[in-house]
Design a protein that fits this description.
The protein is built from 13 helices and 8 strands. The protein is α/β, with parallel strands linked by helices. The strands form 2 sheets. A 4-stranded parallel sheet has the order 2-1-3-4, sandwiched between helices. A 4-stranded parallel sheet has the order 6-5-7-8, sandwiched between helices.
Length: 260
């Protein structure tokens, strides 16, 4: 091994005179996600599946521990504050509220307005909004809905979908009250659950809730059921990428991200 020739005084001075810059780690897009306090699935899944050059950044809004329509509605008070904490100097390309039922409880338009207030200049979206857009992109109008929710929260989500022109043929919840339970629902159970609730006349199966690890089985479910399967974090991943102008097609996550 030979030693490199020492830099000349002129070359050394040139190096030290100013740093060189490249495009940075997240040169394609910066996406912010506002989470509810005990959410533990979304961060892992976004960081795992966002393509290279797209950065994910997170903050948490405030709400009571129990997951209900009333408790989720309270998250509205801190959405803008949470959004404003994410890259306040550099800014974001997209900001999303990463909670399906929370979006429905607050209202989709109200959610986006609060996010935009905290992160002006970013495209504002929400998990329920992402699901609505995903169903529309695939032309799906008659679905069965599965979730970890209680029946009243499931009914709230079903009414949200109905207002968007989606017919919910049946809604099935697991009756869970806390995120700490929802994050522990085994993916193989989610697979069996989705198969059990499917109906032949349904265009698709929707598995709602970002806390569920549904994205791990969505591709396998489509192969088993022979129809599209939409789940919350898959829909949000697709939505934030397209809003950021990222058109990458991702495999292994269902036809939404593969073909749209």
């Amino acid at each position: 091994m030979t030693n490199a020739a020492p830099l000349s005084d002129a070359a050394r001075a040139a190096v030290l005179s100013a740093p060189r810059f490249d495009e940075g780690v997240h040169h394609r897009a910066r996406v912010g996600f506002v989470l509810i306090p005990n959410e533990q699935t979304t961060e892992h899944e976004m960081l795992r599946h966002l393509p290279p050059g797209v950065g994910a950044f997170f903050a948490r809004a405030s709400m009571p521990r129990e997951i209900s329509t009333d408790s989720l509605a309270q998250v509205r008070e801190t959405l803008a504050t949470a959004a404003a904490r994410i890259l306040p100097d550099d800014g974001l390309d997209v900001i999303s509220f990463a909670c399906t039922s929370g979006t429905v409880a607050v209202g989709e338009a109200e959610t986006c307005a609060e996010l935009a207030r905290g992160a002006p200049g970013a495209h504002a979206t929400s998990l329920a909004g992402s699901v609505r857009k995903a169903l529309g992109a695939l032309g799906l109008r008659r679905i069965v809905l599965g979730s970890p929710y209680t029946s009243d929260l499931n009914d709230t989500v079903a009414r949200f979908l109905a207002r968007s022109g989606i017919e919910v043929l049946a809604a099935h919840g697991m009756g869970l009250h806390y995120d700490t339970e929802m994050i522990r629902v085994a993916p193989d159970y989610i697979f069996d659950f989705a198969c059990a609730i499917d109906r032949p006349e349904a265009d698709a199966v929707l598995i709602s809730c970002g806390a569920l690890r549904s994205i791990e089985v969505v591709d396998r479910l489509e192969q088993r059921l022979g129809k599209p399967v939409i789940c919350s974090n898959q829909a949000m991943l697709w939505d934030v990428l397209r809003l950021a102008g990222i058109e990458d097609r991702l495999t292994g996550l269902g036809q939404l991200l593969r073909d749209h």
